[in-house]
Design brief:
It comes from Flavobacterium beibuense F44-8. It holds the Pfam family DUF4142. Helix 3 packs antiparallel against helix 4. The chain has one domain: Up-down Bundle (Ferritin). The protein is 83% helix and 0% strand. The radius of gyration is 18 Å and the shape is elongated. It is mainly α and 189 residues long.
């Protein structure tokens, strides 16, 4: 009970203090997980980092997919963005359920990095948008595949290992399609 009250006080203090530089939702979630697990289980804290990464990735992919559906002039890129939107929305819903079961805090909004990426891409000229978007999808999914491969092998919790392994086929499919579109766009220029 005392730990719960302390956590609530810490959370309220963190969100109400204007001098607090830790307003990035991803950093807030990581700090909440550190506070929850630091005295009890360092392994859970490490595993929570995979969930925070996945939540940040999903939110970023969802927002960028919406942007691509609006700005892209290429039908294949728009179709890919729709697939990404649907897959990452479903992945986020599943992640939220798993995080709740594991008592893991997730970011509640796009990270500062995610906002910067979104803002930069939204300002791209129409003729440059598709290339920049697809390049981001290649880089982002390459990073996601590496992170989930690591989680599927090194997570301490067996359920988290299985969750990461289950994510890999979809992430690899996204990566491969992004590479195909990247090549297609290069040929068009």
């Amino acid at each position: 009970m005392l730990l719960g009250a302390a956590l609530i006080t810490m959370t309220l203090g963190a969100t109400s203090c204007k001098d607090n530089k830790e307003t990035d939702p991803t950093e807030v979630a990581e700090e909440q997980n550190e506070a929850k697990f630091e005295d009890t289980n360092e392994a859970k804290e490490e595993d929570a980092e995979y969930f925070v990464f996945a939540a940040d990735l999903n939110m970023k992919e969802i927002e960028l997919a919406k942007l691509a559906q609006q700005k892209s002039t290429n039908a294949e890129v728009r179709a890919f963005a729709e697939i990404l939107f649907n897959d990452h929305t479903k992945a986020m819903e599943d992640l939220k359920k798993n995080a709740e079961l594991k008592n893991i805090s997730l970011p509640t909004a796009l990270s500062e990095d995610g906002k910067e990426v979104y803002d930069k891409l939204s300002k791209e000229k129409t003729e440059d948008f598709d290339k920049k978007y697809v390049d981001m999808m290649v880089d982002g999914h390459e990073e996601a595949v590496k992170k989930m491969e690591k989680a599927s092998e090194e997570a301490n919790d067996e359920e988290i290992k299985m969750w990461a392994a289950d994510m890999l086929p979809t992430l690899k499919t996204h990566y491969n399609e992004a590479v195909r579109l990247q090549d297609l766009i290069k040929e068009m220029k």
